[in-house]
Amino acid sequence: MRFTLTLLILTLWFRAVPMADGKPVGTNDSVATKLEVILAEPKPQERLTKLNELGAHLSAAEIHPALAATAGFKQWRERAVLQQAAFRRWAELSPVDAFDYIASLPDSSLKIESLHAAAINWANQNVDKAAAATTRLSPGPARMDAIITVAAIWARTNVTNALAWVDSLPEGFVRQSAENGILYIWVHNDPTACWTRAQKLPPGRNRNALIINIATEWAALDPSGAIKWANALPDVAERELALQDVVESWADKDPVAAGDFALKLPPGSGRGFAVAAVVAVWGAQNPQQAAAWLWEKLDSAGQQQALPRFLMFWAAVDPQASGQWVDSLPAGVFRDAAISSYIDTASYWTPERAAKLALTLTNESVRHEKLATCLQHWRELDAMSLQQWLKTAPVPADLKDQWQPQLSAGPKTDLKSHP
Known about the structure:
By secondary structure, this protein is mostly helical. The chain has 23 helices and two strands.
């Protein structure tokens, strides 16, 4: 197994360890023996893998000797790998002791990742004490990460206490980030209660993201209640955003009812997004029914907005059935739009079928563009069959002139797998 070193190359602090006979003084003999064997391994990646495995299985008594031994390592990456593995192991065995020790190190990616692991384990054992310990840390990225980590764990068991603790922190980015972490957990457990806090947030990306989550979770439990909540939002943009996501979540449970509601929304971009969401979700359940609803119920603007998202899924999972539906449509703007959307996905899977549909496009420039896309993918999959098809297919002369010489010279590739 190839072990990839993920730590950033930062200056780390290591304790000096006196040496005797080429080995660190005070190191456990079993650890020293194991390290001697590992460091003698000629393959660098094997050394890293074995150091990581050693650190992950250290006993409590071996933690300190292993960490002390790293001071004698010649390579920084080997030292970092064993330290990180040892800290993670220590965090499993004794998170309180590991937390206190790691907290004394200078800030680095190693400290952040290792303290993160210790904070998780400690918070799962005693969240109150873990929270108090994180607030005592020196300001810096490790402290911020630890506070956010503990706040998220606390939110899973007692949101009220978690928020009370976060509210006691000084105003600033750390407090805001911890609060956001709590809200994004709370919203999945109790979206209605979460809104009592989220509505106090200032307008912006974070508030909008929470509105989306609240709408999705609330509609899954109580669509009518979620609609009432969304309609009561005073801000027009927030109201449209919430209604779109309420409809999309509702469609996962009852696409017919959600679709009927979406059609009653006021004309505009919000209505367009909502009906497109219904078609997309419905299409994953029953694409034939969704296709019929799209064709029969939506106006031209709604159809144009819903088609790409709908066919991106259907053409990928069933290019044959979706292609037959597209081909059955009457000539016109809708059919051309459906063909273009179908080709965007189906040309990867069934370029021959997509190319035949591309030839029926009304607009010449679009026809040439989409046909070229199909031929490119077809060439990658089966250049020989493309060459035979081009001999008799009603392909524009300029495209034939462009492709035939390349194919006659031999296929660039003949991949039998999909991108």
